[in-house]
Structures are given as C-alpha cells and as structure tokens.
Amino acid sequence: MSRKSSNIILFLSCFMLAAAAHLVFLYQWTRRHYMVGIDDGSSQMLPFKHLLYEQYTSGEFFYSFDFGLGAGTFSELSYYFSTSIVFLISVIIVFILESLNAIPSTDVLFWANAAVFISVVRLSFVLFITSHLFMYMKISRLSAFLGASIYGISGMYFRHTVYWEFFADAFLWLPLLILGIEKIMREQKPGWFLFAVSISLIDNFYFSYINFLLAGIYILVRLVIRLSPQETGWLKAIATFLITGIIGFGISAVSFIPAVYAFLNNHRPAFEQEIPWIDLSDNILFTSRFIVLPAIFVLFLFSVSLYRHKAFQLFAALGIIGIMLHYSPIAGSIFNGFSAPQYRWEYFLSLVAGGAVAVGMDHLQKLAWRQFAVAGALTAAIYLIAAMMDKTFELKSLSTLFIISSLLITWLLVLAVLQFKQPRLKLLLTGFLIFSLLIFANFYQVEKLLKIGQIEHVNEELLTSAGYNDPEVQGLIEEIHKLEDGVTYRIDWMEDVRNNTPIVQDFRGLSAYSSILNKNLLYFYLYDLEIDMGRESVSRYATLGNRTNLHGLLQGKYSIKEKGDSNVPFGFTEILSSENYIVYENQNTLPFARAASTVYHEQQLSDEPAIVREHAMLTGIVLDGSEAAHPLPSVEEQTSAFKVQEADATYEDGLLTIYGESGGIDLVRQDSSFTEGDLYVSFHLKHIEPDEGFPLAVNDYHTTRKSNSSIYRTFVDDITIRIPAEDIVKIRMPKGKYHLTELQVFEEPYQVLQEQSGGNTGLKKLDIDGSQVQLEYNNTEKDDYLTVNIPFERGWEASVNGEEVDVLKANYAFAAVPLAEGSNEIKFTYRPPFFKTSLIMSVLSLIIGFLFVYRKKH
C-alpha cells in the first residue's frame, strides 16, 4: 500500500473515531441542542465568532466600534479567535458556502450549530497528527492509533471545546512541537519544530506559553533519556532549539507582539490568595473533571519489565511528573501565568499516557504474566485507596461502574494475551480499549458537561429567547435603528449578565466581556469614575450606572428598561414601548467630537469625587499629566445636610454591624430644597466576612459585591451610586459586619450638562469605517483640542489637515488631537500596536527560517 493511500485510510479512521466520540453532542444537535457552554461559551465564544466573521468578510481585520465602546479586535481578541488557525480556516470555508447560498446567514445561532462539526474535524486532525508522532517514534500503526485515541478522546478535549473552544486548538500544536523536538534529536532537522513554534505563537499566545513550558519539560527529560546512541548531542540540540525558537518567534511577531501588548495593556487585580504547594483532593482515577487516567496506563506503570524500553521510560517518567504537577496548585498557577491555579495544561498528561500505552502495547507479549498479575494487584490497591480518600466517590454512578468494569476486563484481556500469545487477542484488547475510551468520553459528556455543566440547557430556545436574544427587545432595537441615520448613538441594554449582548443583537452598546480589555476603559469604570456596573466582576464593563452626564458624553442616547424599573437616567423620556419593555431617549446628548480649551489634568483631579471629574470632562478636557491647569469645577458636598440613622444595625466609627436579616443606615435630609435632579452617594465599603458575597441596595438601585476570596473580585471598594433625588437614602446589605467609611453625598441638578448639550458644535462631517475615522471640524471658537469618543490605545495615528499629530489620552480613556484654527480635516487610522515593525520582523524571519532549514537539510 502506498504512503498516500495509507494516510488516507488513517485519516478516515481518525474521522470516524472522532465522530463516534461526539455521538452525544451529535444526537443533541439533532434536537437543536448545542456543543456550547451556557456561560462563557454563549457569552463569549459565539459572539466573538459572529463579530470577527462579520469583520473579516467585510474586509476589516483590526478594529471594531461594535465591541464595547470600541476595541482593537486583532490584538484584544487574539486570546480567543482573531488569529486562531482553526477559526480562520472556518471563516474561509463558511464564506465560500455562504457565497454559494449553501448555508443560511451566519448569525450567532449558526455558529452554535457549527460547533460540533468543527470539533469533529479538529479532533480528526488531533488524532491524525498524534498517530504520526507516535509512528515516527517507531511505534506500530495500531498502537500509535490507540495512543492518539487516549490523547484526543479525553475529557479535557471536550471540556475545553464546550467551555472555551479556542483552548481545544492547543491539542493540535502540542504533538507537532513534540514531533519537532524528536526531529531535531534524531535527525538534526529543525523544520517541524520551527513550524510548530511559529504556528503556536501565531494561533494563541496564552497556549503557546503553556505548550512551551510543556515542551521544555519534554526536552529536559528527553536529554536525559536518549532513545538511541546516534542522537544529537545535548549541546548541539539545545543550540538548535534556541536558534529555531528565536526564528519561530520572529515569524510569529506580526501576531504575537500585538497580542502580548494587549495582554500587558489589560487590567486584572493580582491573585492575592495563598496558593498551597500540594492539594490531594482531586481524584484522577475516578471523578476528576480534568483528567481521568485510563486503567491500562496505570497497569503499565506497575509493569516493571516495560521499563527496559527507553521509549516507555520516557513516557512513564513524563506521566509521573505530570501526575505530581497535577497535585500541586503552585504548578497550576505557573501554567496560568503565575495567577490563580488552573488545570488547562493537563492534556499533556493524556498525551504522555497515550505514548506510554502505545509503547507498552508494542512490547506487551514480552511481559511475564505473573509479573503483570502483581501489577494488577498493585493497581487494584491504588484504585481502592483513591476511592476511600475521595469524599465525592459514588460506587453506583455510571462512570464509576464503567471504570471498575473496564479495569477488570482490561486486566483479564492482558492476561489472556500473555497466556495464549494470540495476535487476535491483542487486536481484541486494542479494540476494547478504544471502545472503552469512546464509552467513557460519552459518559463524561453526559455527566460532567450536560448535567453538571448544564450544557443540556443550551439549545435554540435559549439562544432565541429572553435572557440571551429576546425577540421583543430585538424588535425595539430595530425600531430605534429606523429612527436614526447616524452611526454614533449607543443603546444601554444588556440581557441579564451577558455583557456581549450588543454583539449578539447587532447594536452599539455600552458593555463588553472579555479576558483582555483596554486597560484605560477598565480604569475609567473602576477607578476614575467609580461606575457601578450592577455586578462586581473582573474582565467586563457594563452600563454607565444610570449617570446622565456619562450617557451624554459617550453618546448613550437610548436606554431600554423593563416596565416597572425605576432606575431611568435623569432627562430620559419614553419614546417606544412593548409588552414588557420601554425605550427611553436621552434629551442631553453630546456630539462624537467636541472641542475644548479649558484644560484639567488627571493628577489635579486625583482626590476629587466622581461628579467633579464628570463636570471637568463636560466643561473642558482632562489630559494625562500633573502640570498646573485650569481651576476645577465647583461642586458643593451635601453630606452635612443628611442625618445618619441606623436600621436594624449599629454604626460606630465606620463599623456597620447589621443584626437583622437586612439592614444598614438611612441618610435623612434635614431640608427638602433639592427635588429636581439626582444624588450621587459615595462610600468605601468592605465586607469583613471573607467568604461571602452580598447584595447592596441604595434605595431602588441594586448591585452585588463578590466575596473577598473570589478570584473574580475587583478589589475596588470605593463605590459611587446615582439615585433620583430623595429625602431619605437607604443603604441596605444582609446581616453581617462591614466597614462603611468615607460617606459623601452630592447633588446633581444637571445644569452643566444642559449648558453643554445646548451649545453649537463645529462637527460638520463624520465617517466611521472600522479602523478608520474621518471628520471635519470647524473650529470657529479657536479651541486648542478636539476630544473624540475613540477609546485611547496604542495603535491609533492621526493627521490634522494632512499633517501627522500625536494622539493624546484625554478624559481618562479616550483620544484627542490638537486643533488648528478654522476648518480641520481630521483622520484617525488604527493598526495593531507595533504592526509595521512586527510585520517586517515576520517577513525577514520567514526568509531566515527558510534559509536555516534549507541549510540544515542539505
């Protein structure tokens, strides 16, 4: 049989096995249920695929004003799909099919439908590549296929695919890296390693970091365990790895450098909790969510005679190291960038377990059956100990019964092979092992994903209903679009806690949810303006806290509220309604671009309350600096006009002790002179109990705070809440002890906003086209600066009347340029950070890499 025919048969076998491993989700698909997580899967993966597909197929690759308040999607979504090889190939195929009218429109629901089929194809290539890796290591085809199955058909593959689909791409690149390492060690050929390094770094910087740590462990062990005397010397091998790795980094620079910059320009509070060195609570033989070791691997680890073979020594040593790392949260933290411990790297354990089993199967008939009987006894003892130590162990669960049955049958079949020496028995054993992998994978999908992970609820009904994409709200949004002919208006609306609702429902909103966001915007929300988002959590921003000044500044022209919700921003009037919702329109909007000469500086405002910072942005421009500037706007504090009264609580020296089920303090106004406008209530609040989150209410406004031990806590305890003017301000929390200090109350009658919104604007023309913004501004007032509602980030360049100018950071998180007198033609252009330099680096490195590989080959 020719090599080509052999590869075709192997791939078809991999494809059929991959399809069989997805039987649960393929059946779910026929019922319009999807292989998508109910939280991040539907809130991030689907919206980002939809957004990027629309961008890429329209010719825009770098920036989107539809992602939150605007973002460089090439860099900020590189953690997800913007440079994912699997996604890019999917885009090309889907675009061709859509062009041929072979598929319907590609909305979020389309990507939910496609998820299981993309996963089947990806897993087919995982199995195919890994089989070739093991065959290259002199393992027989059938045993290599079995080893690849242990790697690919593992619980972690399906866990990654369902919850965070881009994580599953790492399954492709790890065996390629190992193949590249073996090529250098055996033949001194760096081509495959160069390719694997480059594609890993291009595909996803986060998983390239994990894969390189794993590859480093493999290299260290591989340098110790040499598989043949003719292999490359360790000094020469290390030199080749370093040189090839550097060239590979250079090739990936155009993708990797902007991605890393976005990561560094993100903001997430440091993980401050203590991380233990050892945690033995997870049971990797029965109940682990991450990795359940196959019984045959455990049996082989106790088979002493297998250690005569160098390849088995290699994989067994790596497996033992992997098991030790699994039980160390410190290792989990290192693999997660020295942050909270995560177990995303453990597909490596599946890979080396597959390698050990593959080698063991090739040398199985050389084992002494009595020795293997001892191995079986030791394995049984280990399983018994694991069951006794696991408090969650359930003997009657389907997965437990299957694992025990599989262990017994495997042990008996191996003994039969050793006793009777029949090739058919070995083939039967291999078939049973692959069959058991399939059964366990489907058990895992049902128990751990569909049931515990609630994936069974992700269906067409969910993705087209209230809480995700409410048709009633969608109708109101379409009515709003009909009213507008501009491109800058934004709608304040979010389905439940799904911050990427604007992407799903195709409108420009005020919220975003992503592991990487523009640090300037996060600081704007968390620290500079203290905007409460209705829910404390990292990696997201949402709404504007119903603060009309901010709505006016950021073109928040419309707000959609449920009927009965009293938290309507001041100055918003009802214009549309449906059965359950009302659309309100802002009567005090400001233009996308505003000129200013009154300059304030951030340092000057650092100790001022949020309302003073709002007025500074309204009356002038806030620049990044500490130089002497214009006197600050005057806002009088009104805290002394209120008397503090306790409500089912005691409050003394900043310590609030609530003894009722709900309580707190009341701020009672001593006079009622202020009735038209809002109150800004600011305070510092921290729960003394470390492990309990809590709801917080200020009159009719409700929000939630995370527990002090939560990894999603922002650690921002300075809170500013806007409420309509009232004579009594009720601050309520559940029973417990709190530190409540720095209490301040300010009145906001909105005179400043109304003055600014009623003025003339010099903005004559505006065109927003993705990564390019062009406008004309007539500077009749001879102002010095023009602020624009483009979030400030590295990558923006600007010209005024054809001359390049610096893009300034203004109003804490947005862009500004200097203005000339009279008419100004202004152009903003965005390219990912360091794009030109990194592109040149990639091209030059590609040429160097080609010459390097060619020289080594010849």
Automatic annotation (TrEMBL):
It comes from the Bacteria. The keyword tRNA-binding does not apply. Pfam families: YfhO. Keywords: Membrane, Transmembrane, Transmembrane helix. The keyword Membrane applies. The chain crosses the membrane at residues 77-97, 109-129, 135-154, 166-185, 205-225, 237-264, 284-307, 314-335, 347-364, 371-389, 401-420, 427-444, 834-854. This is YfhO family protein.
